[in-house]
Each structure stands twice: as C-alpha cells, then as structure tokens.
Amino acid sequence: MKKITILGLFVSLLFAFSCTTKITTSKLQSQDSVLISENRQDSLDLNFDLEYIVSGFSQDAIKAFNDSIVYQSLAVIGLDANELAVENLADCISDNLIKANRELYDNAEESVGASWSYYVAGEFLPKYEKYFSYKLYTESYLGGAHGISNTRCFVLNNDGKVISEEDLFKEGTEEVLNNLLESVAQKYFKDNVGDDYVMDQNVRANSNFYMTDEALVYVFNPYEIAPYYLGTIELSLPWKDLKSLLK
Question: Which residues contact 28 (CB under 8 A, 6 or more apart)?
C-alpha cells in the first residue's frame, strides 16, 4: 500500500476584547491519497483541515471537546475509536476504511474502480459574548448514488463546557422555540424553493446550533427536515425574538 501525504500544523490564538478568556488552537492539515491495492489503481482520497484546542480551558474540558471532534468525524462513516488523539485521525480513518471494505475490493472486477473520498474541516467561528462556536463539516463518497455531507456544531462557554438548549432556555419553552423554528423554516422554503413546496416533516430544535452577534443559528443536515437535493439548511433565530425564552 502506497501513501502520499502533505501535512501541516499551525498554532493560533482566539480571544475576545470584552473578556480575558482566550484559547490556543492547532490545526491538522493533511491531504492523503491511499492506494487500496498494490495491483490496482483504486484509491481513497483524504483531506483534513481541522482546528482543535491546545490550551485555554482545563485539561478535562479540552479532552472532552477534542474527543467530541474525533467521535463525530468517525461516526458519520460508521467508525469508532476510543482514546484517539486528533493528530492520529487521518491514519485511523484511512486504515480502518480500507480494512472494513477489503473483501469488497478483493472481490470486485477490474473494471469496477473504487474512487472514494473523505473530507473533514472544522473551525472556530467569531466569538459571541462568552461563547465559542465551532463548526465541523464532513463530506464523504463511499460508493452509491451520491456522497453524504454532515455539519455538526458545538458551542462552548468560558469554562469549555459544550452547552445545549437546556443551558440557554427557560424550562417549559420548548414548544415556543419549536414554533419559532417552524415559522422560520416555512419562510426559508418559500424564499428558496417556492410557494408550492410543502413541508412533510416537523422542524424541532436539534441541539445543532452556533451563535453570531445577530442570531442563534440552527443547522439541519440533508434528509433531516427536507430532501437530499436541498442540502444543508440553516435557520436563524434573531436574539430579539428569543429574549423572553432565554435564562
């Protein structure tokens, strides 16, 4: 098996002028083209551009967050690994994807090529008040009619804890929040698809959100609230509309 690798690593600081909390991050940048078999040209192309935390929070908080990045990156392609460092993610994915599908490759005819790809990118977004938002995007093609993309967002407070709706909203406001999302979704589909589009799925808060200065933004992946062809859908709830719901 042959492997061609380009690897880069950098360190940066994230901070807010309004407070003293700052974090140091590194980035895993890697492009691999892995030949699946010595006797064929089938390949697995890997591309990583993944930011992760080095310091700024407690070691427990840093480990918990970085573990979440690793878990999510593996889960979307059906893999699992315990205690895996971010730096080893690329090798883990290439080795395990090939191992899991070795029988398929060996039994395939010469004319049936396996040109697979996996891309993962993760970065911190601009800080909002005391919150750090992080967006993790994965895109893979592992055979079939089309590839699959997935976006997972995390929001951390100044202690490095990943927060959920329960941390943000008052008890008993779930239905109001869902009604707001439903209303925004209806407008989104009307503006982007047309008046004739009929929503066939309820829109509910899914704990997949990030924050901006203007809004709390919920992210829905393909198939989650709409057909695949509509792609990833982001619904913005302005802070002014959420004021009465927030703790």
Answer: 9, 48, 49, 50, 52, 86, 87, 89, 90
